[in-house]
Every structure is written in structure tokens, then in C-alpha cells.
């Protein structure tokens, strides 16, 4: 993956801008399984066609489709013929809310196509010139036109605290210094991120241990399971819930492609 500078207007909302080129040939048995990240991701594929599969539901993308990958609470499988090349924007958990979206909870575990129409009525990203930077610029300008809202500072603060604690923080402690009920904060957080603080914390906690222990099969990190989970049974329960497999079965097959999207 290659990363690009974030325009100043998008810095409060965007975590990274990247391009990805799949290999020409896939390893036998490649799973191409992506775990939840707690982020909204906008993708424009300029070479090839592919599909996201979430909970046995397929979302197909023809070439030049601009699509939003919503928050997901279980793995995503990538399927399609290689090669596929795409440009992506990973939003901060609350970042896509700034584009004027007010029904984010309805996008959970879904992928939806997004309009490429600009304010002047013309359409962006209808072809690929061969210059990736030109397409990145075209995509970011399209997004800059759509900024309508700023996320609530309390939502930003909750995300920052969860990230700082790697997901290991009690929900009551998140809300301790905020003069608003837990119910209201949960509702506010969900409206601007799509999920609850508890769900977000679980995703971040699992992602941390996946990167430490599973992604590179680094068994020497296994003791760190207990820093992020109560015990190994707690970890196994989370693993099966997200990846639908036990770790020893999952690790028997390659996941090179999926792991490219798990690095932080």
C-alpha cells in the first residue's frame, strides 16, 4: 500500500489516504479476510472488479465504482479476479459523519455505492488517466465539497480515550467527566460513528491483539492476550465471533491480502 498526504481541510476527519494494487496471482487458499477496524472506508477501484462479502451477503463493484464500506462487526471477505487496483480513504470513526450522513447506523455490515456527482453537476472519477495522484486529488476535492458538519467533541474524546487504552477501558469511566447521561451519550456516539462505544472498544481491543499475535503468527506475543482480554477463553470467544473460526484453523490458511488492510 502507498500512502498520500491528507489535504488540510480533511485532516479532522480522515485518518489515511492510500492506493492498493493486488498481486497478479493469489496464494492457494488465500482467505482475503479483513477484520473490523472501527473506521469507515471509501474505495474507488480503477482496475478490475471485485466484491465484498459480509455475513454471506455479497456487494459487487464494477470498475470505477465509488463505494462506502460501513462499520462492520464481523470479517469481510474480498473476492474477485486479480489484479485489482483501488484508491481508498480511511475515515476517523466519526469522520464520515462530516459528509452530511445522518443514517450511519443503517450502513453497519453493509457496502453502499456513493454518488460521484460534484456540486457543479458534473461527475468525477469516471475513468483513470494512468496517474494515481490525479485521481487521489479528484477524490479528495469531491469530499471537500461535501463537508457539512463537525463531529461532537465528546464523541472525538471518547474515541481518543478508547484508542489510548487499546480498547481496555470501562464504559462508565469514559463517561465519568461528561455532564450528560450514558444513554444520551450512547445515542450521540452511535449517530456519529454508526456503533456504540462498547462495540468500538471491542473492535479496537481485538484489532490490537490480532496485530500482536495473529497477523504475523507471533506466538511469543501470546502472553499479551491477558493484557487485553480476561483470559484465553475470552479471546477465543471474540475471535470466533469476528472471524467465525478458531485461531488454529484460521492460521492454517494464508491471509496475506487481508492482512495488508489490518496494519496500523
Description:
The protein has 264 residues and is an alpha+beta fold. The chain has helices spanning 132-145, 153-164, 171-174, 182-193, 197-214, 225-228, 232-243, 247-250, 256-260, and strands at residues 2-4, 14-21, 33-34, 41-47, 50-54, 57-61, 66-69, 76-79, 85-91, 111-113. The strands form 2 sheets. A 6-stranded antiparallel beta sheet has the order 1-2-9-4-7-10, with helices on one face. A 4-stranded antiparallel beta sheet has the order 3-8-5-6. A hairpin with a 2-residue loop joins strand 5 (50-54) and strand 6 (57-61). Helix 2 (153-164) runs parallel beside helix 5. The termini are close together. The relative contact order is 0.17. The mean pLDDT is 89.
The helix count comes to 9
Strand order, sheet with most strands: 1-2-9-4-7-10
Radius of gyration: 19 Å
State the major sheet.
Answer: 6 strands, antiparallel
Averaged pLDDT, please?
89
Q: Order of SSEs, N→C?
A: EEEEEEEEEEHHHHHHHHH
Q: CA-to-CA gap between the ends?
A: 12 Å
Characterize the overall form: globular
The helix/strand class is alpha+beta
Helix content: 25-40%
Q: Which percent band covers the strand fraction?
A: 15-25%
Poorly predicted regions are none
Topology:
Elements: E1 2-4, E2 14-21, E3 33-34, E4 41-47, E5 50-54, E6 57-61, E7 66-69, E8 76-79, E9 85-91, E10 111-113, H1 132-145, H2 153-164, H3 171-174, H4 182-193, H5 197-214, H6 225-228, H7 232-243, H8 247-250, H9 256-260
Antiparallel strand pairs: 1-2, 2-9, 3-8, 4-7, 4-9, 5-6, 5-8, 7-10
Helix pairs in contact: 2-5
Amino acid at each position: 500500500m502507498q500512502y498520500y498526504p491528507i489535504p488540510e481541510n480533511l485532516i479532522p476527519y480522515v485518518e489515511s489516504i492510500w492506493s492498493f494494487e493486488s498481486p497478479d496471482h493469489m496464494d492457494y487458499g488465500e482467505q482475503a479476510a479483513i477484520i473490523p477496524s472501527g473506521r469507515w472506508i471509501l474505495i474507488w477501484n480503477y482496475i478490475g472488479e471485485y466484491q465484498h462479502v459480509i455475513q454471506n451477503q455479497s456487494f459487487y463493484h464494477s470498475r470505477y465504482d465509488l463505494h462506502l464500506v460501513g462499520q462492520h462487526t464481523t470479517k469481510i471477505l474480498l473476492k474477485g479476479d486479480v489484479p485489482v487496483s483501488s484508491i481508498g480513504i480511511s475515515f476517523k470513526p466519526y469522520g464520515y459523519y462530516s459528509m452530511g450522513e445522518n443514517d450511519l447506523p443503517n450502513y453497519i455490515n453493509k457496502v453502499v455505492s456513493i454518488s460521484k456527482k460534484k456540486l457543479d453537476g458534473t461527475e468525477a472519477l469516471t475513468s483513470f488517466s494512468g496517474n494515481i495522484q490525479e485521481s487521489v486529488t479528484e477524490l479528495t476535492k469531491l469530499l471537500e465539497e461535501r463537508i457539512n458538519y463537525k463531529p461532537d467533541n465528546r464523541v472525538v474524546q471518547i474515541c481518543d480515550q478508547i484508542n489510548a487504552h487499546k480498547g481496555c477501558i470501562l464504559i462508565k469511566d469514559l463517561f465519568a467527566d461528561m455532564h450528560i447521561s450514558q444513554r444520551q451519550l450512547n445515542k450521540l456516539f452511535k449517530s456519529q460513528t454508526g456503533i456504540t462505544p462498547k462495540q468500538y472498544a471491542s473492535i479496537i481491543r481485538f484489532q490490537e491483539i490480532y496485530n500482536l499475535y495473529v497477523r504475523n503468527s507471533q506466538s511469543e506475543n501470546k502472553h499479551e492476550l491477558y493484557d487485553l482480554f480476561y483470559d484465553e477463553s475470552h479471546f477465543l470467544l471474540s475471535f470466533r465471533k469476528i472471524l467465525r473460526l478458531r485461531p488454529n484453523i484460521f492460521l492454517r490458511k494464508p491471509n496475506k491480502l487481508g492482512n495488508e488492510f489490518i496494519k496500523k
